[in-house]
């Protein structure tokens, strides 16, 4: 047996942060740099922003459609965030993991808690923190994607979101986006190398020492 016979079981990489800390930027950088990971496209009842595309950034649905999907058990996790509902579809995630594909989740702490209960063995959780409070507010104000009242809501909620950082496996303080990207890639590489994610490793070692 050679190393090509070792199959990598996919993992679920969760990124969470308060709005404006940089998780979306880091998500896009990781996806552009690594062909072996893909984004989990969440279902949401939130209206799309100008820069967002249905089916690529989110699956935008009505409240009735979301409720129907929830009743049918279509979601691995779902939560209400700023008055809108968000959920992760179960079937595409399970199929990707079985095929050895890693899945990236851009979700909040509520979703991360639910995934911890249902899929802890496949889960790697990373929390992104801003370098300071003033910088968080500056990023939210200048990204110009939300009206001022929503920015106020996000800042008011940030302290509660940050309080959940101890529930995560890793924490990245996003002071420098390039360094944060390097750290995130290093975490992913280390988690992929865990022995319990390398299917066929025991047989490889057995043949290695017996050859």
Descriptive report:
26% of the residues are buried. This protein has one domain (3-40, 100-210): Rossmann fold (3-Layer(aba) Sandwich), CATH 3.40.50.300. 43% of the residues lie in helices and 21% in strands. The longest helix is centred in the last third of the chain and has 16 residues, at 177-192. The strands form three sheets. It has a five-stranded parallel β-sheet with strand order 3-8-2-9-10, with helices on both faces. By secondary structure, it is of the alpha/beta class. The chain has helices at 23-33, 63-71, 90-98, 109-119, 133-142, 148-162, 177-192, 201-210; strands at residues 7-8, 12-16, 37-39, 43-44, 59-60, 75-81, 84-89, 102-106, 123-129, 170-173, 198-199.
List keywords for this structure.
211 residues, alpha/beta, Rossmann fold, 5-stranded parallel β-sheet, 4-stranded mixed β-sheet, 8 helices, globular
Structure in a nutshell:
With 211 residues, the chain is α/β, with parallel strands linked by helices. It has helices spanning 23-33, 63-71, 90-98, 109-119, 133-142, 148-162, 177-192, 201-210, and strands at residues 7-8, 12-16, 37-39, 43-44, 59-60, 75-81, 84-89, 102-106, 123-129, 170-173, 198-199. 43% of the residues lie in helices and 21% in strands.
Describe the secondary structure blueprint for this structure.
Layout: E1 7-8, E2 12-16, H1 23-33, E3 37-39, E4 43-44, E5 59-60, H2 63-71, E6 75-81, E7 84-89, H3 90-98, E8 102-106, H4 109-119, E9 123-129, H5 133-142, H6 148-162, E10 170-173, H7 177-192, E11 198-199, H8 201-210
Parallel strand pairs: 2-8, 2-9, 3-8, 4-5, 9-10
Antiparallel strand pairs: 1-11, 4-7, 6-7
Helix pairs in contact: 1-7, 5-6
């Amino acid at each position: 047996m050679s190393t090509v016979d070792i199959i990598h079981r996919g993992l679920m990489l969760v990124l969470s942060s308060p709005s404006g800390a940089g998780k979306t930027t880091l998500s896009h950088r990781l996806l552009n740099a690594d062909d072996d990971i893909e984004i989990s496209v969440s279902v949401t009842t939130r209206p799309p922003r100008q820069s967002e595309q249905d089916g690529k950034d989110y699956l935008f649905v009505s409240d009735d459609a979301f409720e129907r999907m929830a009743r049918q058990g279509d979601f691995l996790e779902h939560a209400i965030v700023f008055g809108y509902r968000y959920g992760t579809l179960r079937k595409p995630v399970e199929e990707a993991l079985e095929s050895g594909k890693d899945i990236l989740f851009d979700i909040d702490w509520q979703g991360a808690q639910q995934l911890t209960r249902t899929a802890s063995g496949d889960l790697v959780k990373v929390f992104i923190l801003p370098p300071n409070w003033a910088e968080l507010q500056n990023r939210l104000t200048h990204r110009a994607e939300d009206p001022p009242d929503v920015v106020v809501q996000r800042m008011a909620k940030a302290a509660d979101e940050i309080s959940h950082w101890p529930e995560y496996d890793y924490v990245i303080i996003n002071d420098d986006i390039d360094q944060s990207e390097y750290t995130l890639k290093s975490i992913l590489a280390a988690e992929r190398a865990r022995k319990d994610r390398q299917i066929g490793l025991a047989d490889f070692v057995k043949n290695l020492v017996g050859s």
